[in-house]
Amino acid sequence: MIGTSFGKLILAASVTVATDNPIRFEPDRPVSMTLAPTQRVDAILTLRAGESADLAVLQEGIDVVVEAHAPDGTLLESVDSPNGRQGDEPLSLFATVDGTYRIHVQPISANEPEGRITFRIVASRNATQTRRLLADRRRARLEAASWLRSWNAALPSGRVPANTEPLRPLDELAQGAQVIGLGEATHGSRELNDFRLAVVQRLVTRNGFRLVALEDSASRWRALEPYVQGEAANPVGTLEWGWIGRRVRRELLDWARQWNLEHPNDRIRIIGVDPQDNLASREQLGAFLEQAYGSGLAAQWRVRLAELAAADEQTAIFGDSGTSQELRQFVMEIAAQLAGDGPLLRRRFGDRAYEDARSAAGDLAAFTDFNTGSGAIGHSRDWYMALAILRAIDQGRTRPKAVFWAHNSHVSAAETRWGPTGALLRQAFGCGYRALASTFGAGAFVTQLAGDPDNRLIIGQVRAPADETAEGVLRLVRPGAHLTVWGCGDTVNQAPAWLQADRPLRWIGGIYSPTTLPSGNYRPYRLTVAFDAIAFIPEVVAETIPPDLPRIPARQR
Fold it and tell me: Residues 462, 442: contact at Cβ < 8 Å?
């Protein structure tokens, strides 16, 4: 241990709150204990102004949240790493005032199993050592920014790369790619959507990409395909659904349709790869089952349809979309039977009707699989999105180059227990898959209000990033909006030390609470492993909140 003036750590445990008689231990002696779902453990750390400490809470069989409070009770930090029930929850404290800093640890929910936690002090520093650490960190950030600057270009027009303007890093990224993942740090920021739309248009116009795969409803985009291809004068179904990407989705659709009308022999496709939002698939499959197998199976289908519809409805509000094992088995059996009966069904009903039914069954089989979370072989939502992209590429006569448009968390090439889609595509294509993240310094975004029974949308707002975040380094690279591309392979091994470790990257999902601490808007990523490029926009504004979204009550079951 270092830091001769470091204070003592005091630990206390009770059923629901900290005890009045805390257990004291020395900084170099870890403390382990069993934690039940209803318990909370409190730790107390006494520091003088200018001192600092790195702490860790090891989780073994239980997922916990760690909170740090200032001496006056102010919540400083809340940590829940994406490592589930195993691994460390790290926490760093930098004392601004003398006093006792309190650390609360409790299970993430009352449904957690009993597990074991271990507290330890990783490092402790006096004021002089802390100042030295902060100076070393700044030098490391400047070194990282300098390395990124050598692979960087300003974004033309301030924010978006126009087709006619040179942007060598992006063209080089596209040159060797079969699939490019286009990520976003929020679902509701205008500039991030504009950037990705401009990139798609550039990749189509300049780089020969002909497939656009969206993290959006597979069944809705299948119904729209004749319209996008210019084969139908009017679209099937509404063009206005949900709130995520509504404006830019319509702009992309109109642009793609116009391209196809002007290039009838060189068309592009847009597909949705998300099995959620599957009303069209339910209706299509139900009609085909009755026609193909009769009223008996149709009656069984209608019995189970209510559970399927209720689960899918919740996806629009990030609610409870869980499905039963019985429903999963039923839908999986239908999908398997349709595949086995293909030769006969094709001849009876034609290729188009049969393929539509199989696609619908595939959507619903995937949906029930990842929402049930059981079965001999269960897959994640990201697994099925990767499958949809691969199928669309493989069924094309020329194996079209594709763009995958999704949240940064889905396009990331870093492996997790659930995928993500980008990591699966990296396994399939190697460096033929390139992940391009996009993020921002400060600004606003549309999001669903957490815990609101009416599922209202709000405008969230975040301020300038902290120094030790990816965005904190990206703002040092150059003024204004810019794009950095480092590529895939040995290049990343040459990156400076700061980029060789996990660093916080903006991560704002579909649900948000205005009381979220600044650190809650980030997730850890090793930038040069998770992505091959990143766009940085200093400030963003929120998209417009759609006025016509239906109220969907929380599911009761």
Answer: yes
Residue span(s) of the chain under CATH 3.40.1660.10 come to 152-275+387-540
| pLDDT, position 26 | 58
Listed in sequence order, the residues at least 6 apart from 392 whose beta carbon sits closer than 8 Å to its beta carbon are 211, 213, 269, 271, 400, 402
Give the architecture (CATH level 2) of 9-125: Sandwich (2.60)
- Return residue ranges of the chain for CATH 2.60.120.380: 9-125
Which of these, 47, 68, 48, 46, lies nearest to 57 by C-alpha position? 68
CA contacts within 13 A on the Cβ side of 528: 21
| Residue given tokens 């002089």 in the structure block | 128
Angle ∠(543,546,551) on CA atoms, nearest 5: 135
Rounded-to-10 torsion of CA 491, 164, 266, 174: 0
Residue from 229, 225, 249 nearest 239 by CA: 249
Residue type, 253: L
Residue 192: what pLDDT? Answer: 96
What secondary structure does DSSP assign to 79-93, as a single string?
Answer: E--SSTTEEEEEEEE
For residues 45 and 129, give the distance between their C-alpha atoms in angstroms, rounded to a whole number: 18
Q: What is the DSSP letter of 425?
A: H
Instruction: Give domain 152-275+387-540's CATH superfamily.
Output: EreA-like (biosynthetic domain) (3.40.1660.10)
Q: How far apart are CA 522 and CA 291, in angstroms?
A: 50
How far is it, in rounded angstroms, from Cα 246 to Cα 220? 13
Q: What angle do CA 483, 412, 166 make, to 5 degrees?
A: 25
Distances (CA, A) of 108 to 39, 82, 83, 358: 11, 12, 12, 40
Encode pLDDT of 504-543 as tens digits: 999 999 999 998 888 889 999 999 999 999 999 999 999 9
As a residue count, the chain comes to 557
Residues 179/430, Cβ–Cβ less than 8 Å = no
Query: Phi then psi for 70, rounded to 5 degrees?
Result: -70, 170
Q: Could you tell me the CA-to-CA distances from 407 to 215, 428, 477 in Å, in that order?
A: 8, 20, 24
CB 370 within 8 A of CB 384: yes
Q: Which two tokens stand for residue 81?
A: 């790493």
Using pLDDT thresholds of 50, 70 and 90, give the confidence band for residue 82.
confident
Average pLDDT over residues 419-437: 97
Going by the DSSP 8-state scheme, the letter that residue 283 receives in this structure is H
Number of CB atoms found within 10 A of residue 49's CB: 11
What tokens appear for 482 in the block? 């810019």
Per-residue pLDDT reduced to its tens digit, 332-367: 999 999 999 999 999 999 999 999 999 999 999 999
pLDDT level of residue 28 (50, 70, 90 thresholds): confident
Residue 512: exposed, middle, or buried by beta-carbon count in 10 A (0-12, 13-18, 19+)? buried
| pLDDT given at position 1 | 31
**pLDDT tens column, 384-422:** 999 999 999 998 778 999 999 999 999 999 998 889 999
Torsion angle of C-alpha atoms 176, 189, 243, 356, degrees rounded to 10: 0
